[in-house]
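hey
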């Protein structure tokens, strides 16, 4: 690797190359580390779009799209979920599209699951069909699949991460 100085081109040391790579990787990790939480006692009706991780402790009625989604025990989602990685410990009623899906022992799922890998722990309840797809979550994050699925809901909630 070379760097340009006032005198011309000079070689960059291996330590400086490694430091640059480490900084680039940590900057990339920080953008993926964005976390949004829907707290207990909170109900959102509409569409939620997230670029990072969304933790659901409350209730959602509508569509949820994020890179990583965690639906905790006691939480409930009614509608479509699209994610790269999805962990369910609560109740989900609706279609799921995720590359990696994990149903914890407390999960209750009613609906179809489209996945690349599916893990169902003992005592989890799943009523529906499961279909393996190589790229189950490869859908654009900005285009809703079924706007009619939101019914007559006039409220639109969009979870977006800001810069900290």
């Amino acid at each position: 690797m070379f760097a340009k100085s006032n005198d011309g081109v000079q070689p960059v040391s291996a330590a400086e190359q490694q430091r640059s790579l480490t900084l680039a990787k940590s900057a990339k990790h920080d953008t993926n580390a964005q976390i949004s939480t829907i707290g207990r006692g909170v109900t959102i009706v509409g569409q939620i779009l997230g670029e990072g991780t969304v933790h659901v402790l409350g209730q959602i009625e509508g569509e949820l799209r994020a890179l990583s989604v965690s639906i905790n025990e006691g939480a409930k989602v009614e509608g479509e979920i699209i994610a790269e990685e999805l962990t369910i410990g609560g109740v989900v009623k609706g279609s799921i599209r995720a590359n990696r899906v994990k149903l914890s022992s407390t999960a209750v799922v009613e609906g179809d699951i489209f996945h690349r890998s599916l893990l169902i722990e003992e005592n989890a309840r799943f009523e529906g069909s499961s279909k393996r797809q190589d790229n189950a979550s490869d859908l654009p994050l900005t285009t809703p699949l079924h706007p009619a699925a939101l019914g007559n809901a006039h409220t639109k909630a969009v979870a977006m991460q800001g810069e900290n």
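The two ends are 33 Å apart (CA to CA). Residues 2-32 form one domain.
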